[in-house]
């Protein structure tokens, strides 16, 4: 991969839903939805490397959570889609909604909790935080590849951000879903990179 001309001060790693629902061995969504477990476990391993390296390189680190109110009123009376599924399943509460210990935010890292949709930008202060801090380059990782990561990628593109996806640090329910994202989706809205590509970043 060619060197990327990015300044650390203008670059953020955006970690999407590193909560126990997905990351813990006891995650309820993980046990219910993930069919290709090896791919999912590899995504967690690569995510740890991406986080460690991003901190070393001086990127801003942003933790995006799903933290609905206990009555799920923020999602309204949706009849279908994610808003309906989350409300009916009563997910993301208690232990399942907590950030996994391997990905706990450090004191200087930003946490987004106000989301009301699949995209990290939906109903949150993420766009405001990025613009106020002069961040123009986003590096995405998290869960699930074909749902919240993809939705965030599309939103970031339309908002004008230069967006990279560390696809190996994202987890899908199946290998086919991740392959489809890599082959048919990501290049329309951003650029796919590997964790090892972070070493090739060129800073001016």
UniProtKB/TrEMBL annotation:
Record organism: Vibrio marisflavi CECT 7928
Domain Isochorismatase-like positions: 11-191
The EC number(s) this enzyme carries: 3.5.1.110
Molecular-function GO terms, alphabetical: hydrolase activity
Organism placement in taxonomy: Bacteria, Pseudomonadati, Pseudomonadota, Gammaproteobacteria, Vibrionales
SUPFAM superfamilies in the cross-refs: Isochorismatase-like hydrolases
The protein's name in its UniProt record: Peroxyureidoacrylate/ureidoacrylate amidohydrolase RutB
Record keyword Hydrolase present: yes
Matches recorded under Pfam families: Isochorismatase
UniProt xrefs under InterPro entries: Isochorismatase-like_dom, Isochorismatase-like_hydrls, Isochorismatase-like_sf
Keyword set, alphabetical order: Hydrolase
This protein's encoding gene: rutB
């Amino acid at each position: 991969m060619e060197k990327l001309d990015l300044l650390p001060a203008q670059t953020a790693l955006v970690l999407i839903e590193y909560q126990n629902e997905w990351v813990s061995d006891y995650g309820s969504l993980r046990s219910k939805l993930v069919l290709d477990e090896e791919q999912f476990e590899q995504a967690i391993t690569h995510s740890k490397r991406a986080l460690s390296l991003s901190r070393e390189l001086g990127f801003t680190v942003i933790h995006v959570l799903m933290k609905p109110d206990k009555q799920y009123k923020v999602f309204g009376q949706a009849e279908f889609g994610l808003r309906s599924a989350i409300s009916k399943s009563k997910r993301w509460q208690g232990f399942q909604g907590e950030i996994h210990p391997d990905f706990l935010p450090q004191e200087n890292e930003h946490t987004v909790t106000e989301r009301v949709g699949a995209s990290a930008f939906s109903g949150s202060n993420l766009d405001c935080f990025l613009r106020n801090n002069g961040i123009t380059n986003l590096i995405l990782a998290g869960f699930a590849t074909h749902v919240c990561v993809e939705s965030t990628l599309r939103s970031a593109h339309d908002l004008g951000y230069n967006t990279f996806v560390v696809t190996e640090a994202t987890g899908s329910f199946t290998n086919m879903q991740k392959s489809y994202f890599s082959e048919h989706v990501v290049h329309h809205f951003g650029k796919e990179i590997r964790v090892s590509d972070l070493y090739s970043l060129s800073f001016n």
